[in-house]
Design brief:
Layout: E1 8-12, H1 17-25, H2 29-32, E2 33-38, H3 50-54, H4 56-64, E3 69-71, H5 74-77, E4 81-82, H6 84-98, H7 114-136, E5 156-157, H8 159-168, E6 173-185, E7 188-193, E8 208-215, H9 217-230, H10 239-248, H11 257-266
Parallel strand pairs: 1-2, 2-3, 3-8
Antiparallel strand pairs: 4-5, 6-7, 6-8
Helix pairs in contact: 1-4, 6-7
């Protein structure tokens, strides 16, 4: 661990198994962390999201660490939804790219060109536009003070993208709130909402976490689309393309059937 103390921001987009294991295996990690951003948590009483539910022991271990923890709960994510209008935007961009021969790859292929990478997402986006409103979104009930997207019945939630942009574009988020006594027990997340958030330096307590309650969803979605259009993977082949693939796949959320069943059960 060569990083200076309090310099690492760790973004966790799934169950916290690996984060808890890393904290246990490397005693110096906790003091190197500036904060941990966790895509997880549900602000509805008697509910728990799939990420924390998947490994409750690990979730509690991470919540107990003395590092500022920033949750990205269900209610924050459901304010940003990709719908058919966003699919159309990708389709339109594909058509505009296809009119630019200089962006076509070798031997007449479109590998590495913007049109090829955008088109690679279209089938996944179409699948999501059918599956999520049908099976998952009806169970994502709104909570007072945290407005759901008006498109929730028509599209799919930009889960990972919201969490990632919270780290890279914090200006899109507001209404910072803090929780203490945060823990997971009996399949439910428990917490006490504080009237005022303390300064960041005072947020490194065990079982303390914060979250942002409001999102500029238009900015989140437009930035996500611009990242897709401008991604290196759309303009390069080889290592540059490989490095950019994870960014593109943020929109490739096409779950296997077993994942869909797990999400369905978690929201029951």
């Amino acid at each position: 661990m060569r990083a200076s103390p309090k310099t690492i921001t760790l973004l966790a987009l799934g169950p916290l198994t690996n984060v808890a294991a890393a904290l246990a295996a490397e005693p110096l990690l906790e003091e190197r962390l500036k904060r941990v951003v966790i895509m997880g948590g549900d602000l509805r009483p008697d509910h728990l999201d799939l990420n924390l539910l998947s490994d409750v022991e690990a979730a509690n271990r991470v919540l107990e660490c003395r590092v500022p923890k920033l949750l990205v709960p269900v209610q924050t994510c459901t304010q940003s939804v990709f719908a058919r209008e966003h699919l159309k935007a990708v389709l339109d961009k594909c058509e505009s790219f296809s009119d630019q021969p200089g962006l076509v790859g070798p031997a007449g292929t479109r590998e590495g060109a913007p049109v090829g990478c955008a088109q690679a997402l279209l089938s996944k986006m179409r699948r999501q536009l059918w599956m999520m409103p049908t099976f998952i979104n009806p169970r994502l009930h709104p909570v007072r003070d945290y407005p759901q997207s008006a498109l929730i019945a028509q599209g799919f939630v930009a889960w990972d993208i919201v969490a990632a942009l919270l780290v890279t574009h914090p200006m899109f988020f507001s209404a910072h709130r803090c929780l203490e006594h945060v823990n997971v027990k009996g399949g439910v997340m428990h917490w006490v909402l504080l009237p005022i958030c303390p300064p960041l330096l005072d947020q490194n307590h065990s079982n303390f976490a914060s979250f942002y309650g409001l999102v500029d969803s238009e900015a989140v979605l437009s930035t996500a689309l611009e990242l897709i259009y401008g991604c290196k993977a759309m303009r390069a082949r080889g290592p540059a393309r490989d490095e950019a693939v994870p960014l593109m796949l943020q929109l490739g959320l096409a779950p296997e059937l077993v994942s869909l069943v797990l999400v369905f059960l978690a929201l029951s």
